[in-house]
Amino acid sequence: HYASRMVRCYAHRPRSIHALFNAALARGVDREALSSPAGRLSYGELDRQAGRLAAWWQARGVKQGDRVVLMVSNRLGFVIAFLASQRLGAISVPVSIRESADGLAFILQQCNARALVLDTALAERLPVASEAADSPETASARATSAASAAGLLVLKTEDLEALAADVTQPVLKQPAAVQEEDVACLLYTSGTTGRPKGAMLTHFGIVHSCMHYQQLMGLGDDERSILAVPASHVTGLVAMITTMWHVGGALTLMPEFKAAAFLELASRERITHTMLVPAMYALCLLQPQFASTDLSNWRIGSYGGAPMPQATIEALARTVPGLTLMNAYGATETSSPATLMPQGKQAMHLDSVGQPLPCVDIVVVDDDGVEVAPGETGELMIAGPCVVPGYWDNPEATAREFIGGYWKSGDLGSKDAEGFVRIFDRKKDMINRGGYKIWSVEVENTLAGFPGVIEAAAIGVPCPVLGERVHAFVHTTQPAPDPQALRAWCAERLADYKVPEVIGLRDEPLPRNANGKLMKRTMRAWQA
Fold first, then answer.
1. Nearest CA to 169 among 58, 95, 274?
2. Which terminus has fewer CB within 10 Å in the chain: N or C?
């Protein structure tokens, strides 16, 4: 595959994202596909609405291989537009609604976009919006007009949804004939340093990710899930939207995560599955109504990236005994998961993100690229059908970050003899205090176990004597805990050199970029 890679694959697999959807459609056109505050859509109605939008785009020159940018929140229009672009064989380019005007302009130019869908409230972020304006409406109108004149077909989400629901519109029924190694989506990486890179997710890679989720989570055709993370992120797009298509499940769209609203939705919609970040579970546990909410249908609770504090795991086990927690690790470049915790193994491997997926290979290497022994620390390199072939129109970055079919993750970790993977830190975030290596993740997870701490970040700040010292920031509930109590908590659980010397309390969420990653560069500037 991809000209030179030898990878383990599922022998029997769908050949495109649209084939995943068609399989769900074949299970029953009246089965529920989506629900949102705006209403519910069956698979049959979603099929028709996407077909109308695809026909509208096709009539205006959008064709196979064109890039269609989606700057849309978690609403029906996102899923409709994504499916419509896949029906045309176009390349979907989801963009976070938190992206700046400058960031959007870069992405539109870098991928040479043909069409753009965006929420009306975001219209002022069109590249030319800053040039005009005696009112936001005037700026939006001029920006849209200028973008169209430049060859970019702009459609606001509300107009898209109205068009898709219009039964008088023609419907494009036949999907384009794509090859499974064709690029299906471009997802721009976070760009915490420098400009973001457009990872080229293929049909081949996304299909394998969906099949991995189905197999290891034991997903059936009656799943009900909630999309509470951004649809534009690889987790929302692959772990939630396309995986639910693969199993023919129903997906509830949550425009913005609020713990109380999530619990009410989870109970009312009888959810069986979802994927959240650890802080979201912690916020749910803080709700007074958590223990009395009926979550008896909730069977699979996945979470990404870092181990969850043991206190959170124990509290969930007491309150939702039927819930199986499954830690996962992956990235945009791996089309979502690279590892997943086997069911029933979480309690025995609290510090692990699971084992490599059936078709994934992970090796741990030293600075010279030589594989280290089991249990030793090094950089994780990941291969498999879900690993993207590279970055869009960026051969330099592709050559730098991919070698021999492996993606250089930039994550420091280990893999033991049983294959359980542990993640310690980003290479660039490791703290070196007087020659002692400190993994910021270990400090952060220790802080997260303190009552009232919602999330934490540990950073290294320059020190003329030791090189770096450990500082931390924590987002807490009110009343805020005493920083000295937090330091004492860490001192009981960490080696003395790992204990943060300064802990800053925040009553608002810690800064994250458009892809949801902690912006430690910003926090380091707070210390300057």
1. 58
2. C
